[in-house]
Amino acid sequence: MILASVLITCQMIFIRAVLGQSTIWQTEAVIYLMIAATMIGLAYVQKLKGHVGVDLIPTLLGPKGRRIMSLFTLFVTGMMMALMLYYAFDMWHFAWARGWKSETIWAVPLWIPYLSVPLGFGLFLLQLAADLWMVIRCEDIGAPVAAEDRRH
């Protein structure tokens, strides 16, 4: 989706700058693709532990403290994402049921781009549940580990 956004942006620049014509759908498509890439990518980034975080406190704690902190953090984050999923699904369903379209010449049915929001939050919630399960089973401490702890 990001590659498609870049290519569409290049095509849009060519049409505007070189051909001197106006564009109709490109800006809107790039916006929807980037939002979808971000939302759907949440779960993958969580799987890789790639979200930005401050790891000062977890690295100062021992393994038991890190585990407790991970349990709490994953549970609270999961509850927040469940709430976001509920409202995202409601937003998508509302757009689908009422036949909403974007207010541009392209007039995209909004349920199509809106679908990426509950899908992304749903996948993210599933990944958080998997991470929580791993921490409960003591298979993953869910936080950065000091270099000396990794060797053991």
Describe this structure in words.
There is one protein chain. This protein has about 150 residues and is an all-alpha fold. It has one domain (about 1-150). It contains seven helices and no strands. The protein has helices at about 1-20, 25-45, 55-60, 65-100, 110-115, 115-135, 145-150. Helix 1 runs antiparallel to helix 2, helix 2 (about 25-45) runs parallel beside helix 6 and helix 4 packs antiparallel against helix 6 (about 115-135). The longest helix is centred in the middle third of the chain and has 36 residues, at about 65-100. The radius of gyration is 21 Å and the shape is elongated. The two termini are about 40 Å apart. The model has no long low-confidence stretch (mean pLDDT about 90).
Summarize the helices and strands and which ones pair or pack:
Blueprint: H1 2-18, H2 26-47, H3 56-60, H4 63-98, H5 111-114, H6 116-136, H7 147-150
Helix pairs in contact: 1-2, 2-6, 4-6
| Structural domains: how many | 1
| Radius of gyration from CA coordinates | 21 Å
Portion in strands: under 5%
How helical, in percent, are the residues? Answer: over 70%
Number of strands: 0
Class from helix and strand fractions: mainly alpha
Please work out how many helical segments DSSP would assign.
7
Gap between N and C termini: 40 Å
In terms of per-residue confidence, which ranges show pLDDT below 50 for 5 or more consecutive residues?
none
Helix and strand run: HHHHHHH
**Would you tell me the overall average pLDDT?**
89
Q: What's the story with the biggest beta sheet?
A: none
Overall outline? elongated
